[in-house]
Amino acid sequence: MMRKPHIIAIPYPAQGHVIPTMELCLCLVKHGCKVTIVNTEFNHKRIMESMSEADNAINLVSVPDGLAAEEDRNDLKKLTDAFFEVVPGKLEALIHNINESDENRVSCLIADENLGWALDLAKKLGLQPVAFWTASAASLPMVFNIPKLVDDGIVGNNGEILKKQSIKLLPLMPAMNSTDLLWNCFSDPGLQRLVFELALKNNESVKAAEWVICNSSQVMEYEVFASYPKLIPIGPLLASNRLGETSGHFWREDTDCLKWLNQQPLNSVIYVAFGSHTIFNMAEFQELALGLELTNRPFLWVVRQGFIEEGGNAYPEGFIDRTCNRGRLVEWAPQQKVLAHPSLGCFLSHCGWNSTIEGVSNGLPFLCWPYFADQLFNKSYICDVWKISLAFHRNECGVIGRHEIRNKVEQLFGDENFKARAVDLQAEVVPSVKSGGSSYRNFSSFVNWIKAKN
Protein backbone atom coordinates (compact mmCIF):
# COMPACT_ATOMS: atom_id res chain seq x y z
CA MET A 1 0.00 0.00 0.00
CA MET A 2 1.28 3.46 -0.94
CA ARG A 3 2.38 5.60 1.99
CA LYS A 4 0.22 8.66 2.64
CA PRO A 5 2.06 11.96 2.10
CA HIS A 6 2.82 13.59 5.46
CA ILE A 7 2.42 17.37 5.56
CA ILE A 8 3.46 19.75 8.34
CA ALA A 9 1.45 22.98 8.49
CA ILE A 10 2.25 26.04 10.59
CA PRO A 11 -0.09 29.04 10.86
CA TYR A 12 0.78 32.50 12.13
CA PRO A 13 -0.42 32.40 15.79
CA ALA A 14 -3.61 34.46 15.41
CA GLN A 15 -7.24 33.33 15.24
CA GLY A 16 -7.80 34.59 11.69
CA HIS A 17 -4.84 32.51 10.47
CA VAL A 18 -5.38 29.36 12.53
CA ILE A 19 -8.99 28.64 11.45
CA PRO A 20 -8.34 28.66 7.65
CA THR A 21 -5.15 26.62 8.16
CA MET A 22 -7.13 24.02 10.12
CA GLU A 23 -9.77 24.00 7.38
CA LEU A 24 -7.15 23.55 4.65
CA CYS A 25 -5.63 20.64 6.56
CA LEU A 26 -8.98 18.92 7.15
CA CYS A 27 -9.56 19.10 3.37
CA LEU A 28 -6.12 17.56 2.76
CA VAL A 29 -6.92 14.72 5.19
CA LYS A 30 -10.18 14.12 3.33
CA HIS A 31 -8.09 13.76 0.14
CA GLY A 32 -5.83 11.08 1.61
CA CYS A 33 -2.99 13.03 3.25
CA LYS A 34 -1.58 12.81 6.77
CA VAL A 35 -1.29 16.24 8.40
CA THR A 36 0.44 17.59 11.50
CA ILE A 37 -0.44 21.15 12.53
CA VAL A 38 2.02 23.07 14.69
CA ASN A 39 0.45 25.69 16.96
CA THR A 40 1.98 27.58 19.86
CA GLU A 41 1.48 25.95 23.28
CA PHE A 42 -0.72 28.90 24.32
CA ASN A 43 -3.03 28.55 21.28
CA HIS A 44 -2.94 24.73 21.32
CA LYS A 45 -4.35 24.74 24.86
CA ARG A 46 -7.15 27.12 23.86
CA ILE A 47 -8.02 25.11 20.74
CA MET A 48 -8.18 21.84 22.68
CA GLU A 49 -10.34 23.42 25.40
CA SER A 50 -12.78 24.97 22.91
CA MET A 51 -13.29 21.79 20.86
CA SER A 52 -16.54 20.05 21.72
CA GLU A 53 -14.83 16.80 20.82
CA ALA A 54 -11.24 16.17 19.78
CA ASP A 55 -10.84 15.94 16.02
CA ASN A 56 -8.61 12.94 15.46
CA ALA A 57 -8.28 13.56 11.73
CA ILE A 58 -5.32 15.88 12.30
CA ASN A 59 -2.29 15.47 14.54
CA LEU A 60 -2.14 18.66 16.65
CA VAL A 61 1.24 19.43 18.21
CA SER A 62 2.63 22.50 19.94
CA VAL A 63 5.84 24.47 20.40
CA PRO A 64 6.61 27.34 22.83
CA ASP A 65 5.98 30.85 21.48
CA GLY A 66 8.84 32.41 23.45
CA LEU A 67 6.63 34.37 25.85
CA ALA A 68 6.07 33.68 29.55
CA ALA A 69 2.60 32.41 30.55
CA GLU A 70 1.49 35.78 31.95
CA GLU A 71 2.67 37.90 28.99
CA ASP A 72 0.16 39.56 26.65
CA ARG A 73 -0.31 37.75 23.31
CA ASN A 74 -2.26 40.75 21.99
CA ASP A 75 1.00 42.72 21.98
CA LEU A 76 1.74 41.80 18.37
CA LYS A 77 5.29 43.17 18.35
CA LYS A 78 6.32 41.25 21.44
CA LEU A 79 4.58 38.08 20.21
CA THR A 80 6.10 38.27 16.71
CA ASP A 81 9.62 38.99 18.02
CA ALA A 82 9.47 36.08 20.48
CA PHE A 83 7.81 33.71 18.01
CA PHE A 84 10.42 34.35 15.30
CA GLU A 85 13.27 33.88 17.75
CA VAL A 86 12.10 30.61 19.32
CA VAL A 87 9.87 28.72 16.88
CA PRO A 88 12.24 28.13 13.90
CA GLY A 89 14.59 26.00 16.02
CA LYS A 90 11.69 24.14 17.67
CA LEU A 91 10.05 23.42 14.30
CA GLU A 92 13.30 22.12 12.82
CA ALA A 93 13.83 19.81 15.83
CA LEU A 94 10.23 18.58 15.54
CA ILE A 95 10.64 17.71 11.85
CA HIS A 96 13.96 15.91 12.52
CA ASN A 97 12.24 13.95 15.26
CA ILE A 98 9.35 12.89 13.00
CA ASN A 99 11.72 12.02 10.14
CA GLU A 100 13.60 9.51 12.26
CA SER A 101 10.77 7.17 11.31
CA ASP A 102 10.84 6.35 7.57
CA GLU A 103 7.20 5.39 7.67
CA ASN A 104 6.16 8.84 8.90
CA ARG A 105 8.54 11.11 7.00
CA VAL A 106 7.41 14.65 6.22
CA SER A 107 7.48 15.49 2.51
CA CYS A 108 5.83 18.93 2.42
CA LEU A 109 5.69 22.01 4.65
CA ILE A 110 2.76 24.44 4.32
CA ALA A 111 3.60 27.75 6.01
CA ASP A 112 1.59 30.90 6.49
CA GLU A 113 3.01 33.38 3.97
CA ASN A 114 3.83 35.67 6.89
CA LEU A 115 6.31 33.03 8.11
CA GLY A 116 8.80 33.23 5.24
CA TRP A 117 11.52 31.68 7.42
CA ALA A 118 9.51 28.42 7.47
CA LEU A 119 9.67 28.26 3.66
CA ASP A 120 13.46 28.74 3.90
CA LEU A 121 13.56 25.94 6.50
CA ALA A 122 11.60 23.62 4.18
CA LYS A 123 14.17 24.17 1.43
CA LYS A 124 17.02 23.54 3.86
CA LEU A 125 15.45 20.24 5.00
CA GLY A 126 14.60 19.05 1.49
CA LEU A 127 10.82 19.43 1.92
CA GLN A 128 8.41 20.82 -0.66
CA PRO A 129 7.68 24.42 0.45
CA VAL A 130 4.11 25.75 0.08
CA ALA A 131 2.97 29.24 1.13
CA PHE A 132 -0.60 29.77 2.32
CA TRP A 133 -2.03 33.30 2.20
CA THR A 134 -5.04 33.43 4.53
CA ALA A 135 -6.11 37.00 3.69
CA SER A 136 -7.57 38.43 0.47
CA ALA A 137 -5.46 38.02 -2.65
CA ALA A 138 -5.85 41.78 -3.21
CA SER A 139 -3.87 42.55 -0.05
CA LEU A 140 -0.78 40.72 -1.35
CA PRO A 141 0.08 43.32 -4.04
CA MET A 142 0.61 45.82 -1.18
CA VAL A 143 3.49 43.62 -0.05
CA PHE A 144 4.77 42.64 -3.50
CA ASN A 145 4.83 46.32 -4.59
CA ILE A 146 6.96 47.61 -1.70
CA PRO A 147 10.07 48.17 -3.90
CA LYS A 148 8.02 50.19 -6.41
CA LEU A 149 6.34 52.21 -3.64
CA VAL A 150 9.81 53.03 -2.28
CA ASP A 151 11.13 53.93 -5.76
CA ASP A 152 8.11 56.19 -6.34
CA GLY A 153 8.84 58.05 -3.09
CA ILE A 154 5.50 57.09 -1.54
CA VAL A 155 7.08 54.89 1.15
CA GLY A 156 10.42 55.35 2.92
CA ASN A 157 13.08 52.68 3.45
CA ASN A 158 11.70 51.87 6.90
CA GLY A 159 8.07 51.75 5.76
CA GLU A 160 7.15 55.30 6.75
CA ILE A 161 4.50 56.92 4.53
CA LEU A 162 6.16 59.88 2.74
CA LYS A 163 3.19 60.86 0.55
CA LYS A 164 -0.45 60.67 1.58
CA GLN A 165 -2.17 59.98 -1.73
CA SER A 166 -4.52 57.65 -3.56
CA ILE A 167 -2.70 54.71 -5.19
CA LYS A 168 -3.71 51.88 -7.51
CA LEU A 169 -1.66 48.73 -7.12
CA LEU A 170 -3.21 47.11 -10.22
CA PRO A 171 -5.20 48.80 -13.01
CA LEU A 172 -8.47 46.98 -12.23
CA MET A 173 -8.16 47.04 -8.44
CA PRO A 174 -9.92 49.74 -6.42
CA ALA A 175 -7.80 52.73 -5.41
CA MET A 176 -6.57 52.92 -1.84
CA ASN A 177 -5.02 55.56 0.37
CA SER A 178 -1.29 55.16 0.94
CA THR A 179 -1.94 55.53 4.70
CA ASP A 180 -3.94 52.26 4.58
CA LEU A 181 -0.97 50.11 3.55
CA LEU A 182 -0.88 46.98 5.74
CA TRP A 183 2.05 47.83 7.99
CA ASN A 184 0.93 51.44 8.53
CA CYS A 185 -2.33 50.38 10.20
CA PHE A 186 -0.63 49.69 13.53
CA SER A 187 -0.31 52.56 16.02
CA ASP A 188 3.05 51.38 17.39
CA PRO A 189 5.92 52.64 15.14
CA GLY A 190 8.07 49.69 16.25
CA LEU A 191 5.41 47.23 15.10
CA GLN A 192 4.96 49.13 11.81
CA ARG A 193 8.68 48.80 11.07
CA LEU A 194 8.75 45.13 12.11
CA VAL A 195 5.81 44.24 9.83
CA PHE A 196 7.37 46.21 6.96
CA GLU A 197 10.76 44.47 7.33
CA LEU A 198 9.11 41.04 7.59
CA ALA A 199 7.10 41.75 4.44
CA LEU A 200 10.32 42.51 2.55
CA LYS A 201 11.96 39.30 3.81
CA ASN A 202 8.85 37.25 3.00
CA ASN A 203 8.87 38.63 -0.57
CA GLU A 204 12.22 36.86 -1.01
CA SER A 205 11.30 33.68 0.86
CA VAL A 206 8.03 33.17 -1.03
CA LYS A 207 9.99 32.92 -4.31
CA ALA A 208 11.16 29.50 -3.11
CA ALA A 209 7.59 28.24 -2.63
CA GLU A 210 6.45 25.63 -5.13
CA TRP A 211 2.85 26.78 -4.64
CA VAL A 212 1.31 29.96 -3.20
CA ILE A 213 -2.27 29.04 -2.36
CA CYS A 214 -4.91 31.55 -1.31
CA ASN A 215 -8.21 31.33 0.58
CA SER A 216 -10.18 33.12 -2.11
CA SER A 217 -11.88 32.42 -5.42
CA GLN A 218 -11.28 33.49 -9.01
CA VAL A 219 -14.70 35.16 -9.10
CA MET A 220 -14.09 37.43 -6.12
CA GLU A 221 -10.68 38.81 -7.16
CA TYR A 222 -10.14 37.87 -10.80
CA GLU A 223 -7.90 40.89 -11.60
CA VAL A 224 -5.37 39.90 -8.89
CA PHE A 225 -5.14 36.29 -10.02
CA ALA A 226 -4.76 37.41 -13.63
CA SER A 227 -1.78 39.60 -12.61
CA TYR A 228 -0.16 37.00 -10.32
CA PRO A 229 -0.55 33.60 -12.01
CA LYS A 230 1.56 31.90 -9.31
CA LEU A 231 -1.11 32.81 -6.74
CA ILE A 232 -3.65 29.95 -6.76
CA PRO A 233 -7.18 30.39 -5.32
CA ILE A 234 -8.53 27.30 -3.53
CA GLY A 235 -11.35 28.88 -1.49
CA PRO A 236 -13.51 29.91 0.13
CA LEU A 237 -12.42 27.22 2.62
CA LEU A 238 -15.47 26.68 4.84
CA ALA A 239 -16.46 23.76 7.06
CA SER A 240 -19.87 23.68 5.35
CA ASN A 241 -18.20 22.74 2.05
CA ARG A 242 -17.18 19.38 3.53
CA LEU A 243 -20.30 19.16 5.73
CA GLY A 244 -18.11 19.33 8.85
CA GLU A 245 -17.54 21.43 11.95
CA THR A 246 -15.24 24.46 12.13
CA SER A 247 -12.03 23.75 14.07
CA GLY A 248 -9.39 25.99 15.63
CA HIS A 249 -11.45 28.38 17.75
CA PHE A 250 -9.68 30.09 20.68
CA TRP A 251 -12.97 30.49 22.59
CA ARG A 252 -15.78 28.01 23.18
CA GLU A 253 -18.73 28.72 20.89
CA ASP A 254 -22.11 29.57 22.37
CA THR A 255 -24.34 27.27 20.31
CA ASP A 256 -27.48 28.24 22.26
CA CYS A 257 -27.69 31.37 20.11
CA LEU A 258 -28.75 29.12 17.20
CA LYS A 259 -31.92 28.21 19.13
CA TRP A 260 -32.54 31.92 19.67
CA LEU A 261 -32.09 32.54 15.93
CA ASN A 262 -34.73 29.88 15.23
CA GLN A 263 -37.28 32.11 16.96
CA GLN A 264 -36.54 35.22 14.86
CA PRO A 265 -38.29 36.26 11.62
CA LEU A 266 -36.62 35.51 8.26
CA ASN A 267 -33.96 38.02 7.12
CA SER A 268 -34.43 40.15 10.23
CA VAL A 269 -31.39 39.76 12.50
CA ILE A 270 -28.36 42.07 12.55
CA TYR A 271 -25.32 39.90 13.35
CA VAL A 272 -22.56 42.00 14.96
CA ALA A 273 -19.06 40.52 15.22
CA PHE A 274 -15.61 42.12 15.13
CA GLY A 275 -13.28 39.11 15.08
CA SER A 276 -10.52 38.26 17.52
CA HIS A 277 -8.35 41.42 17.61
CA THR A 278 -10.64 44.48 17.49
CA ILE A 279 -10.66 46.58 20.66
CA PHE A 280 -13.25 49.31 21.31
CA ASN A 281 -12.95 52.17 23.76
CA MET A 282 -15.89 52.93 26.06
CA ALA A 283 -17.34 55.70 23.85
CA GLU A 284 -17.33 53.52 20.71
CA PHE A 285 -18.81 50.58 22.57
CA GLN A 286 -21.64 52.59 24.10
CA GLU A 287 -22.54 54.25 20.79
CA LEU A 288 -22.68 50.83 19.11
CA ALA A 289 -24.94 49.48 21.87
CA LEU A 290 -27.27 52.51 21.69
CA GLY A 291 -27.25 52.38 17.88
CA LEU A 292 -28.37 48.75 17.93
CA GLU A 293 -31.09 49.68 20.43
CA LEU A 294 -32.31 52.52 18.18
CA THR A 295 -32.77 50.17 15.20
CA ASN A 296 -35.62 48.36 16.96
CA ARG A 297 -34.45 45.21 15.16
CA PRO A 298 -33.32 41.86 16.58
CA PHE A 299 -29.55 41.61 16.94
CA LEU A 300 -26.98 38.96 17.88
CA TRP A 301 -23.82 40.65 19.19
CA VAL A 302 -20.49 38.90 19.88
CA VAL A 303 -18.70 40.60 22.80
CA ARG A 304 -15.59 38.52 23.42
CA GLN A 305 -13.19 38.81 26.35
CA GLY A 306 -10.90 41.80 25.89
CA PHE A 307 -13.21 43.56 23.38
CA ILE A 308 -13.50 46.70 25.53
CA GLU A 309 -10.31 48.64 26.20
CA GLU A 310 -11.25 49.63 29.73
CA GLY A 311 -12.69 46.20 30.67
CA GLY A 312 -15.60 45.73 33.06
CA ASN A 313 -19.29 46.29 32.37
CA ALA A 314 -19.44 48.99 29.71
CA TYR A 315 -23.07 48.60 28.59
CA PRO A 316 -25.14 51.79 28.81
CA GLU A 317 -27.34 51.89 31.89
CA GLY A 318 -30.52 49.92 31.32
CA PHE A 319 -29.42 48.70 27.85
CA ILE A 320 -29.58 44.98 28.72
CA ASP A 321 -33.08 45.25 30.23
CA ARG A 322 -34.42 47.41 27.40
CA THR A 323 -33.16 45.09 24.64
CA CYS A 324 -33.50 41.68 26.30
CA ASN A 325 -36.53 40.73 24.20
CA ARG A 326 -34.78 41.27 20.87
CA GLY A 327 -31.05 41.26 21.59
CA ARG A 328 -28.73 38.34 22.27
CA LEU A 329 -25.18 38.81 23.60
CA VAL A 330 -22.61 36.02 23.34
CA GLU A 331 -18.89 35.77 24.04
CA TRP A 332 -18.12 33.76 20.88
CA ALA A 333 -20.49 32.45 18.21
CA PRO A 334 -20.46 29.47 15.83
CA GLN A 335 -20.10 32.08 13.10
CA GLN A 336 -20.38 29.95 9.97
CA LYS A 337 -23.63 28.41 11.27
CA VAL A 338 -24.96 31.80 12.34
CA LEU A 339 -24.29 33.34 8.92
CA ALA A 340 -26.02 30.42 7.19
CA HIS A 341 -29.17 30.88 9.32
CA PRO A 342 -32.26 32.08 7.41
CA SER A 343 -33.14 34.64 10.11
CA LEU A 344 -29.98 36.68 9.34
CA GLY A 345 -30.64 39.99 7.60
CA CYS A 346 -27.20 41.58 7.55
CA PHE A 347 -23.65 41.26 8.91
CA LEU A 348 -22.16 44.23 10.79
CA SER A 349 -18.51 43.28 10.44
CA HIS A 350 -14.89 44.37 10.94
CA CYS A 351 -14.27 43.03 7.38
CA GLY A 352 -11.66 40.46 8.35
CA TRP A 353 -11.14 38.13 5.40
CA ASN A 354 -12.60 35.01 7.06
CA SER A 355 -15.74 36.94 8.00
CA THR A 356 -15.89 38.42 4.50
CA ILE A 357 -15.81 35.09 2.67
CA GLU A 358 -18.24 33.55 5.16
CA GLY A 359 -20.73 36.38 4.67
CA VAL A 360 -20.34 36.31 0.87
CA SER A 361 -20.79 32.52 0.77
CA ASN A 362 -24.14 32.96 2.54
CA GLY A 363 -25.44 35.78 0.34
CA LEU A 364 -25.51 38.40 3.11
CA PRO A 365 -25.30 42.18 2.75
CA PHE A 366 -22.78 43.87 5.07
CA LEU A 367 -22.34 46.95 7.18
CA CYS A 368 -18.60 47.67 7.19
CA TRP A 369 -16.68 48.81 10.28
CA PRO A 370 -13.00 47.92 9.62
CA TYR A 371 -10.49 48.07 12.46
CA PHE A 372 -6.98 47.66 11.01
CA ALA A 373 -4.63 45.94 8.51
CA ASP A 374 -6.24 44.37 5.41
CA GLN A 375 -9.75 45.05 6.76
CA LEU A 376 -9.61 48.63 5.43
CA PHE A 377 -8.96 47.40 1.91
CA ASN A 378 -11.43 44.51 2.16
CA LYS A 379 -14.06 47.18 2.80
CA SER A 380 -13.29 48.64 -0.67
CA TYR A 381 -14.22 45.34 -2.29
CA ILE A 382 -17.34 44.80 -0.17
CA CYS A 383 -18.64 48.35 -0.66
CA ASP A 384 -17.26 49.57 -4.00
CA VAL A 385 -16.59 46.50 -6.14
CA TRP A 386 -19.26 44.00 -5.07
CA LYS A 387 -21.62 46.76 -3.87
CA ILE A 388 -23.16 44.59 -1.16
CA SER A 389 -22.55 46.95 1.75
CA LEU A 390 -22.69 50.39 3.28
CA ALA A 391 -19.84 51.85 5.33
CA PHE A 392 -20.15 53.92 8.50
CA HIS A 393 -18.82 57.45 8.76
CA ARG A 394 -17.18 58.87 11.88
CA ASN A 395 -18.31 62.12 13.46
CA GLU A 396 -16.11 65.12 14.29
CA CYS A 397 -14.89 63.30 17.42
CA GLY A 398 -13.79 60.29 15.35
CA VAL A 399 -16.60 58.10 16.70
CA ILE A 400 -19.30 56.23 14.76
CA GLY A 401 -22.43 57.59 16.44
CA ARG A 402 -25.66 55.82 17.38
CA HIS A 403 -27.76 57.74 14.82
CA GLU A 404 -25.28 56.92 12.04
CA ILE A 405 -25.62 53.23 12.97
CA ARG A 406 -29.42 53.35 12.99
CA ASN A 407 -29.56 55.28 9.70
CA LYS A 408 -27.22 52.90 7.85
CA VAL A 409 -29.14 49.86 9.14
CA GLU A 410 -32.41 51.38 7.89
CA GLN A 411 -30.83 52.28 4.54
CA LEU A 412 -29.48 48.74 4.03
CA PHE A 413 -32.73 46.99 4.99
CA GLY A 414 -34.73 49.52 2.97
CA ASP A 415 -32.92 48.82 -0.32
CA GLU A 416 -33.43 45.31 -1.65
CA ASN A 417 -30.63 45.77 -4.20
CA PHE A 418 -27.98 45.09 -1.53
CA LYS A 419 -29.46 41.69 -0.76
CA ALA A 420 -30.02 40.93 -4.46
CA ARG A 421 -26.38 41.68 -5.33
CA ALA A 422 -25.19 39.62 -2.34
CA VAL A 423 -27.23 36.63 -3.50
CA ASP A 424 -25.90 37.04 -7.07
CA LEU A 425 -22.31 37.06 -5.77
CA GLN A 426 -23.00 34.00 -3.63
CA ALA A 427 -24.33 32.20 -6.72
CA GLU A 428 -20.98 32.81 -8.46
CA VAL A 429 -18.66 32.10 -5.53
CA VAL A 430 -20.14 28.95 -3.98
CA PRO A 431 -19.90 26.78 -7.15
CA SER A 432 -16.14 27.48 -7.34
CA VAL A 433 -15.52 25.02 -4.47
CA LYS A 434 -17.93 22.38 -5.77
CA SER A 435 -16.85 19.54 -8.08
CA GLY A 436 -15.74 21.05 -11.38
CA GLY A 437 -15.43 24.61 -10.01
CA SER A 438 -12.23 26.63 -10.43
CA SER A 439 -11.12 26.41 -6.77
CA TYR A 440 -12.01 22.71 -6.65
CA ARG A 441 -9.89 22.03 -9.75
CA ASN A 442 -6.97 24.03 -8.29
CA PHE A 443 -7.17 22.16 -5.01
CA SER A 444 -7.28 18.80 -6.81
CA SER A 445 -4.17 19.75 -8.80
CA PHE A 446 -2.45 20.77 -5.58
CA VAL A 447 -3.25 17.44 -3.89
CA ASN A 448 -2.09 15.49 -6.95
CA TRP A 449 1.20 17.42 -6.87
CA ILE A 450 1.70 16.62 -3.17
CA LYS A 451 1.09 12.91 -3.83
CA ALA A 452 3.41 12.89 -6.83
CA LYS A 453 6.21 14.50 -4.76
CA ASN A 454 5.76 12.07 -1.85
Please summarize what this structure is.
By secondary structure, this protein is α/β, with parallel strands linked by helices. Helix content is 41%, strand content 15%.
Mind explaining what this structure looks like?
With about 450 residues, this protein is an alpha/beta fold. The protein has two domains: about 5-245 and about 430-454, Rossmann fold (3-Layer(aba) Sandwich), CATH 3.40.50.2000; about 255-415, Glycogen Phosphorylase B (Rossmann fold, 3-Layer(aba) Sandwich), CATH 3.40.50. It contains 17 helices and 15 strands. It has helices at about 15-30, 40-50, 75-100, 115-125, 140-145, 145-150, 190-205, 220-225, 255-260, 280-295, 320-325, 335-340, 355-360, 375-385, 400-415, 415-430, 440-454; strands at about 5-10, 35-40, 60-65, 105-110, 130-135, 165, 175, 210-215, 230-235, 270-275, 300, 325-330, 345-350, 365-370, 390. Strands 3-2-1-4-5-8-9 form a seven-stranded parallel beta sheet, with helices on both faces. A six-stranded parallel beta sheet has the order 12-11-10-13-14-15, sandwiched between helices. Strands 6-7 form a two-stranded antiparallel ribbon. Helix 11 (about 320-325) links the parallel strand 11 and strand 12. The radius of gyration is 22 Å and the shape is globular. The mean pLDDT is about 95.
